[in-house]
Amino acid sequence: MDTRFGCAENAREHLRDITGKDVICTIQAAEPIGPKKLFDVLAVAPCTGNTLAKLASGIADSTVTMACKAHLRNGRPVVIAISTNDALAANAKNIGELMNRKNIYFVPFRQDDPEGKPTSLISDLTLLGDTVAAALEGRQLQPMVLGPRE
Contact at 8 Å (CB) between 109 and 82? Predict the structure, then answer.
C-alpha cells in the first residue's frame, strides 16, 4: 500500500526490476510458498509490531504472515528485522515468543532513540545479509542485542 515512505507501485516495479519476478502481494499467491518450497530463506524486513504480534500468535491474515506460515511449515528459516515503536512495551512478549521458536532468526537490533522513544527497537539492516547467511546455517547471528549507535 502507499505510505509516507513511498508508492506501492514504484516499490513493486523496483523489486520486479531487481529480481525479474512478479511480486507476491496476495494471501492466495503466498500460500504455495510452502508446498512448492519457493525459497531457501524468507526475510521480513522491516517487521512491524503488528506483524510480530501476528506471527507470535499464529495469525496468517496478510501476505507476509501467510508467506511466513507457509515457509515455516517446511522447517525453513525466517529472518525478522524488527522495526517497531512498541518493541519494549506491548510487543516485548511477542519478541520473546518468537525468539524461542525454531527456525526464526533476528537481525541484530538496538534501541533507535532511547531518550525520545524508549520502547522502540530497530534492526541494523547492514547485518541483514550476515543474518540470512547465519540462518541458512541454523544459527542466530550474535550479538543479537546491539549497544547504542556511536
Answer: yes
Cα separation, 49 vs 71, in Å, equals 20
- For residue 80, the SS3 value is strand
pLDDT at 85: 95
C-beta of residue 63 within 8 angstroms of C-beta of residue 30: yes
Grid cell listed for 103: 527456525
CA–CA separation, 55 vs 116, rounded Å? 27
Place of cell 524486513: 45
Residue-level pLDDT at 5 = 80
User: Which residues does the chain have with pLDDT short of 50?
Assistant: none
Residue 140, pLDDT score:
98
The phi-psi region of residue 58 (left if phi > 0; otherwise alpha if psi is between -120 and 50; otherwise beta) is left
Give the largest CA-CA distance in the chain: 46
The residue whose grid cell reads 549507535 is 149
Round to whole Å and give the CA distance between 125 and 85: 17
